[in-house]
Amino acid sequence: MADAPILIDVKKCVGCGKCVKGCGFGALSMADAPGVNKLGKVAEVDPAACKACFACVPACPFKAISQVKAEVNGTENIESYKDIWVFAEQTDGRVAEVVLELLTKARELKAQRGDGCKVCAVILGSGLPPSVDSELASYGADKIYKVDAPELSEYEANVYVDALSQLVVKHKPEVILAGATAIGRAFFARVAVRVRTGLTADCTALKVENTLNKDTDVMQMLLHQTRPAFGGNIMATIMTPNHRPQMATVRPKVFKKSEVDSASAAKCETIAEALKLIAPMTKIVKREPFADGVDIAAAEILVAGGRGLKKAENFAQLQRLAELLGGEVAASRAAVDAGWTGIPRQVGQTGRTVAPRIYLCFGISGAIQHLEGIRGADTIIAVNNDPNAPIFGVADLGIVGDALEIIPALIKELEK
Ligand SMILES: Cc1cc2nc3c(=O)[nH]c(=O)nc-3n(C[C@H](O)[C@H](O)[C@H](O)COP(=O)(O)OP(=O)(O)OC[C@H]3O[C@@H](n4cnc5c(N)ncnc54)[C@H](O)[C@@H]3O)c2cc1C
Ligand code: SF4
Ligand code: SF4
Predict the structure, then answer these.
(1) 262: how many CB neighbours lie within 10 A of its CB?
(2) What is the CATH number of domain 6-68?
(3) Topology (CATH) of 296-415
(4) For ligand 2, mutation pick of 16, 36, 41 (most atoms within 8 Å of CB)
(5) pTM recorded for the entire structure
(6) What is the pLDDT of residues 9-46, one digit of tens each?
(7) What digits encode the pLDDT tens for the residues 264-314?
(8) Residue 369 CB-half CA count within 13 A
(9) Residues spanned by CATH 3.40.50.620 within the chain?
(10) Which CATH class is domain 78-272?
């Protein structure tokens, strides 16, 4: 079983067959092994069918199955990995904004590498319109790998993992970036497990730099993946020196998008990939939008409130102010935890990352976890009655005062 990501210890296997039932991919079967145990059977894995989900490891009550360590399977020929890929998430043929932001960043990383690598977009779906190609090209994709298959008509993690992993094995990208969206978060980590490499989630900064690999004493162009750690109290820079691809997710709005000129876009080539995919296990019967279908990440003006507003009635005044300014209401986690508004409006590390033109906030202290979500704001205006509140450290305009007086006064002025 040299190529399988699991090892079956025949000395421990009693032939009970429980792992066969635990494998959702039909990769395990029972083989005759007379005399090896009482039942004369041992489990056997088909490496080609195995998807490295490792569900069989805990399914065996006799601890006969173990995961092959990454070092054993290794990532030989690191040098053979090239190009920077961006997973081009799409819904109903509409490419997510974060993809365009990541393509822009990928162009920057390509320039930092300076070795002629390509920026490639990978798009999965069914009945994808040609407009996706031109959009990806206009944000800097040199090449598009397109998998258009009925199995991909709806997002399902198993099928996406299967498709992207197959492409990684086939084309060996050096770096893959994905948006830290609901879809990106759900399946990207599983791809990393499948192809046995590292993944840094929720990066806030990325750069490529010639770096010494302390294990091998060799200089390598490594992706420096920076993200908040320890509850946001420090920023950690993480690297993947010994495995490929180097995988990272980035939240929407962390990077800015910018188009390339039409001559560069015209050079982009699309490669249609025909893959043999696993069948989806779920069927989408109906889709229902959230009752509060607000997308604060798309708002140009955000009026945010925090614990300093003291009660729900005070927080509710923000709605009127937001209406008058043509914006949306946002909140700190403290305000969401207090039940003054819903989770979709939370800004910060465990909420949304926003990049409005104006972020006007009242009674928010500016904890690092909150600031993490507003780095992309053009102008931050803060109202707080504590002159030493950390929010003033990042605000372009600060007003030391009582939010409960300033909000009604602003509403009154604007209504005039
Ligand atoms: C792992 C982790 C993840 C987190 N994720 C997030 C996140 O995504 N988003 C987030 O926001 N937080 C997050 N937090 C919580 C964060 O640490 C803070 O606790 C939170 O942001 C505080 O919210 P706040 O600023 O509204 O409240 P406080 O910190 O209590 O600040 C209230 C502010 O209001 C001011 N104030 C009081 N009265 C008035 C008044 N009348 N007028 C004007 N100002 C007044 C006070 O001076 C104070 O500065 C996270 C924490 C952890 C540990
Ligand atoms: S569950 Fe464990 S003991 Fe039973 S057949 Fe599978 S590997 Fe063997
Ligand atoms: S790792 Fe997953 S796919 Fe492979 S044999 Fe075990 S349960 Fe099946």
Answers:
(1) 10
(2) 3.30.70.20
(3) Rossmann fold (3.40.50)
(4) 16
(5) 0.65
(6) 999 999 999 999 999 889 999 999 999 999 999 999 99
(7) 999 999 999 999 999 998 888 888 776 667 889 888 899 999 999 999 999
(8) 12
(9) 78-272
(10) alpha beta
